[in-house]
Amino acid sequence: MVGMTRNDKNPRNGTNAVEVRGLVKHYGSTKALDGVDLDVREGTVLGVLGPNGAGKTTLVRCLSTLIVPDAGHAVVAGYDVVKQPRQLRRTIGLTGQYASVDEKLSGWENLYMIGRLLDLSRKAARARADELLERFSLTDAARRAAMDYSGGMRRRLDLAASMIGRPAVLYLDEPTTGLDPRTRNEVWDEVQRMVAEGATVLLTTQYMEEAEQLANELTVIDRGRIIANGGVDELKAKVGGRTLHIRPSDPAQLPAMAQALRETGLDGVAGAQVVPDEGLLYVPILSDEQLTAVIGLLGARGYPLAHVATALPSLDEVFLAITGEKSTSATDTIPAEVAA
Ligand SMILES: Nc1ncnc2c1ncn2[C@@H]1O[C@H](COP(=O)(O)OP(=O)(O)O)[C@@H](O)[C@H]1O
Ligand SMILES: [Mg+2]
């Protein structure tokens, strides 16, 4: 169960825990980061949303001092990523897309070892390992080798490992990519607990739903550039809470249908999108009333409909709405329910 939703959070206009200005990073001719600006306010979660290859991991690596940016600057918890890397490393935690634990060691040994690497005394490292295993519900598996853990347990161990040094700022780089929905919920619960305890989180994700669950603010990144940012509700409103997928019997009628919706103002903030390849009209839907009215109007105008369904907005649709072009990602839509 996810215990808390973003609505329970009340971000204040505090100081920025992360400030990034004009960050640039090239890999040969690839501009992985092409002048990125972003802020994460203390005690909040910034969701960095973007498809594969957008530059999310490159951003996290720059902010963790693992790579040096070519231009621009970034300050995390008051430390400059380039000029004060040692101090900065002590204040951050990082959970990557791929497990960073040692497979051969037990869960307990992994945490103990990291504690020792972070200069904790033997006694303190032992206590911290016990405490975090307990907290992440891994006490029973403490002595088992990490290679025998399930995917979810492994990810929880990863999160525990990133918490050992009590980081003020935590980077979670696609923390639930590849996890099943139940395990994903477990990870979300843990992240929400960390935030409730005061951590500042920069979360990268390909999942709109994950960003909605966890983030106060969103930044959408594509091809190394920020293409949109704002509050979760703000972006959702741009995209529409759900998307109505309408397949007319005659695809040639798509433009006229879109036009009819535009003229009557029924097509939402982002507007209706004709997708000729798929023979579909996408309409962002913000209320049941709007949904009923859209179907009603098309019926009244005499457009025969072959199929109608609603879907949660996919990342593709967010991109479509924000940029007016299809993203490079091939994310799937989650079918919600079939409308009458
Ligand atoms: N070590 C590297 N060497 C060369 N190109 C890289 C390297 N890391 C990332 N890239 C390229 O930089 C771009 C951004 O990658 P990345 O930051 O990993 O994106 P994301 O994490 O959003 O999937 C991609 O085009 C990727 O191929
Ligand atoms: Mg990545």
Features:
five-stranded antiparallel β-sheet, alpha/beta, binds adenosine-5'-diphosphate, 340 residues, elongated, 27% strand, binds magnesium ion
In short:
By secondary structure, the protein is of the alpha/beta class. The protein is 34% helix and 27% strand.
Characterization of this structure:
By secondary structure, this protein is an alpha/beta fold. It has 11 helices and 15 strands. It has helices at 56-63, 85-91, 107-117, 122-135, 151-163, 181-196, 208-214, 232-239, 254-263, 288-300, 315-323, and strands at residues 16-27, 30-41, 45-49, 71-76, 79-80, 92-95, 169-173, 200-205, 217-222, 225-231, 242-248, 273-275, 280-285, 305-311, 335-337. Strand 4 and strand 5 form a beta hairpin. Helix 4 (122-135) crosses helix 5 and helix 8 (232-239) packs across helix 11. Magnesium ion binds at residues 56-57, 97, 173-174.
